[in-house]
Amino acid sequence: MAETLGGERLMDAVATASKADLTKLEKQLLGEIEKAGNLATLEDLRVGTLGKSGSVTALLKTLGKLPADERRETGQAINALKGRVSEALEARKDVLQDEALARRLETERADITLPVYPGPQAEGRIHPLSQVWDEITAIFADLGFAVAEGPDIETDDYNFTKLNIPQEHPARQEHDTFYMKEKADGSRLVLRTHTSPVQIRTMLSQKPPIRIVAPGRVYRSDSDQTHTPMFHQIEALVIDEDTHMGHLKWLISEFCKAFFELDELRVRLRISHFPFTEPSMEVDIGAEAIGKPGEWLEIGGSGMVHPNVIRACNLDPDRYQGFAFGFGIDRMAMLKYGIPDLRAFFGADLRWLKHYGFLPFDVPTLAGGLSS
Ligand code: DAH
Q1: Are 173 and 196 in contact (CB under 8 A)?
Q2: Which CATH number describes the domain made up of 125-356?
Q3: What is the pLDDT of residues 80-103, one digit of tens each?
């Protein structure tokens, strides 16, 4: 591109350095600049004239070869030409930029009265289960509990035996366990049927005082409107030297009030049986929590940790005692948010999620509100 600008005329001008030729050249260059239809063409012209190997630059470089007496006058003439070309380039650039802006304003007009498109952040939803999981852990964190975890694939020993459910104990049948293939030594792993084995893992790895909650997935071979083969529980465990049932009832009551966001809520501990607690109690809450006063709702099991369990974790049951409870997270989500069918939790139906889900930035905190 650069070589052709001004073409032969340029070379003539250099050869003769005549004023007339410079004038002609200037006219031609200014004409081309004036005709440049867009900024890219104009930039090519600039490079082709004033650039490092541009035509006007080349012209200046020839000055050295001229006889000294001509050099001054020709130099002035070329420099003057250079100045005018440069000015013309600038002026044309301004015009083209203005034109380009005007075109954009014309075509890219934005209607600022249109409603704002909220974007993907507002489209996405937090699953009610994740929301409730976070709500529950936020409440227990506030009460001084740490969060503990265990694997979904658990040893038979931790899922049953150390929880005072020996082989052949009838409670094993009630758990509808998914068993893994038996290993060569006769032992076998299971999909954990409850979060209670996290009690064992915690007591084996920590010294009392212990205050943990363990939310997680659990598995049972069972399926209908209120049962799915995988569901969620949250386990709580408190172990020290003088924790008693009064603490248990207070904690459950405080937790339920915080969770259901009520100032008053009735809590009833109903005598029951679990192998890993003694005594054992079913936990019921007043159904006023979901607008049905007069009825009771069962939300989980609880009890004082059985001495056999404490002993199985190498702690002295004469010194250490405490309580545990396990609630169904799915069930608590269904109760709190009025969700009728558990199976829909795992249906991945976006319409359902849109209806029951939560906005991603509504992170549950006690200060900011759990479900606001
Ligand atoms: N693990 C029991 C279940 O899944 C629930 C349970 C009952 C947990 C009593 C506890 C407890 O910690 O103390 O059926």
Answers
A1: no
A2: 3.30.930.10
A3: 999 999 999 999 999 999 999 999
